[in-house]
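Incident log, support desk, overnight shift.

02:14 A customer reports that sequence design results differ from what the structure should imply. Their input is reproduced verbatim below. On-call engineer (initials T.W.) acknowledged and began investigating.
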């Protein structure tokens, strides 16, 4: 297949503007927090779709875009998802997770109860496509996990940019989502992300992120 290219242009910033913008963006993103208590106030579906399309603009192996974003706003379906997720979470908190894992989670105040799965106005369930199906024929996708992980990062950034909050939820195993959402055999659940406004007077754990010296290594 012959490569086709089109012109690309992007506004560039002056050095002082670049420094200011990088600092502003860091501070903005550093204000993002995981929230586990949501307002039930609805969000326009157009907002959710724009957020997802921003996520879908992320890079992917060979531009295969190996993802599907399922949006659940139906209260009955959200309730079913909560029931199934809590079954798995109960097992995890009562035998599956080793004590070290439980100890690492203890300061966050989490347990197997997941009311946010019903309270949040929308659930975005991200599925990864191990391969595509075209007329019943398998088509290889590349770097699927890395590509879907990047898309989820874009998704969280877009949610934060819009003034909304989210939680990255991973009940394990998550196969029940394939059945409840009637997904095809080439799709596997990757993340379950409740999205909405924070509940009134919501509290979050007092945590600190690592300093630059602990995450950056320079080679000059």
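02:41 Re-run completed on a clean worker. Output:
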């Amino acid at each position: 297949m012959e490569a086709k290219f089109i012109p690309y242009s992007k506004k560039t910033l002056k050095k002082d503007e670049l420094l200011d913008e990088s600092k502003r963006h860091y501070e903005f993103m550093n204000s993002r927090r995981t929230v586990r208590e949501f307002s039930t106030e609805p969000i326009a579906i157009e907002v959710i779709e724009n957020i997802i399309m921003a996520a879908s603009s992320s890079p992917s192996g060979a531009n295969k875009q190996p993802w599907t974003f399922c949006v659940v706003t139906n209260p009955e379906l959200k309730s079913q998802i909560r029931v199934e997720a809590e079954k798995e979470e109960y097992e995890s908190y009562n035998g599956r997770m080793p004590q070290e894992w439980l100890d690492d989670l203890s300061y966050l105040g989490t347990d197997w109860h997941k009311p946010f799965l019903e309270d949040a106005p929308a659930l975005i369930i991200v599925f990864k496509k191990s391969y595509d199906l075209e007329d019943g024929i398998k088509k290889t996708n590349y770097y699927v996990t890395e590509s879907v992980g990047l898309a989820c990062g874009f998704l969280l950034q877009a949610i934060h940019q819009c003034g909304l909050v989210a939680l990255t939820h991973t009940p394990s195993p998550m196969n029940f989502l394939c059945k409840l959402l009637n997904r095809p055999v080439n799709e596997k659940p990757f993340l379950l992300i409740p999205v909405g406004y924070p509940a009134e007077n919501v509290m979050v754990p007092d945590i600190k992120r690592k300093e630059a010296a602990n995450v950056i290594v320079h080679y000059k």
